[in-house]
């Protein structure tokens, strides 16, 4: 490291623990303070040195140079345990090929088909709630997004029983990811009940998905779902033989599930949470959804008329980006912001930290969907909540379609009275930044004695 200035170390590091206690106690507050110490700041988490990039331009540099700042670090190590080398976790050396194979399945032309699966699932869940029922919104939205990814991936190829089994095992797996993300390596290998549950659920998922993929390969019935598109996918720059193998397809299915369920569900929950405490936003959101939908579940055709819903969702994602803290590992020695980083350095970036920079977003703590009016008066960001460079979110379009349809359907079809504990501060963020437990009492708008003016209704 000679010849370049030493990296600033965030204050408050304790012997052995480093910043682990402060980071785990209040991670968002901890991150927000880091830019005051430098553009690139070192933190220490239980013996691990992590370099956090606090400047948007340097974050972009890091994301663009994805062969140097390769996927790695604790988050991707954990993801690889279950999802192998899927497109989100594979090293840069495998990424270009995988991305070329996956990308067409997320083309704009595919969205109306996925939107139909979204509407169907939302109709089943939201339409199934009884008036007066108390629902756990975090769980229900996750159930919807999980079902949507499974439907989008397998289409009619998965029967209801297999669907329920896979969804249940995925829930165990996701909880395991979050728990293990910041666990020291040794603890992850111990045969604790939690680790065993996680491992068994992951094995069952791989087996079930493997069977489904073999069956779908034999059928080749031309049904257009994500899996059939990935089965047909060929790398245009390479040979016929360069299609995905069955093993890789299981990796992709797990990757899509991991990347595409808690993320969108969390964003929608945040939007509901923020709307509940901002009555002007809540009223406008509600008015738009109820006028456009007239009591039905939202469909693809409704999207152009749901502009304000989109603004609310985008602002919620800025303030509470589901992927809030993401890691890389330097493949070779390199410079960043005038500092020398040896090969093998863990580097992290945070869409949360970037979304809270006052230079980019004046008064960043203010929930203001108006920032995104007419496509956004907000600055064109070098780094958004969907990442950047070659590893940016391949599901961003899918996520926005699903998020807008879900948010509009929830507030358009139902009146959701959030219980007071749902309005408390979020619990410790895990793999994704979710608002924790959010419960609400559900009624149908037309049947309310007093539909508006309640202090904490989300819709
Ligand atoms: C609001 C919802 C979502 C947000 C905020 C989000 C955010 C992100 C971010 C920040 C990354 C980059 C990670 C990194 O740099 O380490 C990413 C990658 C990815 N996301 Fe999303 N995501 C969302 C929804 C989805 C959905 C619905 C899917 C799929 C159905 C998806 C699939 C992926 C995949 C496959 C990658 C890896 C891309 C690559 O490395 O080529 N995401 N996402």
In short:
The protein is 48% helix and 9% strand. It has helices spanning 20-25, 27-33, 56-64, 73-83, 92-102, 111-128, 137-154, 160-181, 185-189, 193-219, 226-232, 246-260, 262-276, 279-293, 307-319, 351-355, 396-413, and strands at 40-45, 48-53, 69-71, 134-136, 326-330, 334-336, 339-341, 346-349, 415-418, 439-443.
For the structure shown, list the relevant keywords.
about 450 residues, alpha+beta, Cytochrome p450, five-stranded mixed sheet, three-stranded antiparallel sheet, 17 helices, about 50% helix, binds protoporphyrin IX containing FE
Judging by the overall fold, what is the CATH architecture?
Answer: Orthogonal Bundle
Average residue-wise pLDDT? 87
> Any idea of the CATH class?
Mainly Alpha
Task: Give the spatial strand order of the biggest sheet.
Answer: 1-2-8-5-3
């Amino acid at each position: 490291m000679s010849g370049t200035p030493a990296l600033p170390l965030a204050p408050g590091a304790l012997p052995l623990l480093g910043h682990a206690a402060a980071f785990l106690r209040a991670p968002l507050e901890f991150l927000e303070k880091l830019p005051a110490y430098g553009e690139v700041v070192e933190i220490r988490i239980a013996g691990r040195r992590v370099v956090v990039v606090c400047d948007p331009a340097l974050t972009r540099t890091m994301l663009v140079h994805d062969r140097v700042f390769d996927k790695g670090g604790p988050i991707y190590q954990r993801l690889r345990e279950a999802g192998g080398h899927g497109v989100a976790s594979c090293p840069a050396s495998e990424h270009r090929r995988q991305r070329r194979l996956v990308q067409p399945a997320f083309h704009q032309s595919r969205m109306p088909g996925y939107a139909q699966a979204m509407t169907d699932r939302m109709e089943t869940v939201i339409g199934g709630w009884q008036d007066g029922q108390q629902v756990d919104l975090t769980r229900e939205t996750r159930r919807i997004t999980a079902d949507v990814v499974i439907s989008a991936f397998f289409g009619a190829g998965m029967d209801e029983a297999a669907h329920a089994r896979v969804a249940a095992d995925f829930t165990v797996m996701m909880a395991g990811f979050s728990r293990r993300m910041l666990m020291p390596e040794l603890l992850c290998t111990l045969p604790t009940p939690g680790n065993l549950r996680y491992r068994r659920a992951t094995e069952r998922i791989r087996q079930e998905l493997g069977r489904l993929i073999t069956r779908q390969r034999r059928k080749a019935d031309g049904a257009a779902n994500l899996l059939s598109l990935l089965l047909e996918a060929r790398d245009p720059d390479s040979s016929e033989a360069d299609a995905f193998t069955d093993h890789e397809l299981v990796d992709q299915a797990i990757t899509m599930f991991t990347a595409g369920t808690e993320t969108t569900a969390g964003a929608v929950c945040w939007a509901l949470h923020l709307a509940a405490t901002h009555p002007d936003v809540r009223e406008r959101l509600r008015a738009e959804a109820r006028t456009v939908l007239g009591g039905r579940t939202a469909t693809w055709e409704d999207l152009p008329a749901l502009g304000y819903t989109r603004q609310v969702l985008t602002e919620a994602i800025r303030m509470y980006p589901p992927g809030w803290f993401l890691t890389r590992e330097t493949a070779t020695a390199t410079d960043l912001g005038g500092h020398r980083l040896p090969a093998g350095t863990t580097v992290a970036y945070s869409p949360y930290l970037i979304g809270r920079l006052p230079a980019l977003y004046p008064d960043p703590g203010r929930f203001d969907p108006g920032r995104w009016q007419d496509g956004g008066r907000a600055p064109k960001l070098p780094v958004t909540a969907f990442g950047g460079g070659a590893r940016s979110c391949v599901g961003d379009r899918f996520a926005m379609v699903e998020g807008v349809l879900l948010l509009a359907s929830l507030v358009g079809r139902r009146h959701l009275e959030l219980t007071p504990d749902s309005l408390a501060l979020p619990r410790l963020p895990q793999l994704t930044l979710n608002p924790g437990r959010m419960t609400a009492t559900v009624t149908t708008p037309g049947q309310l004695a007093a539909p508006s003016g309640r202090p904490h209704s989300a819709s």
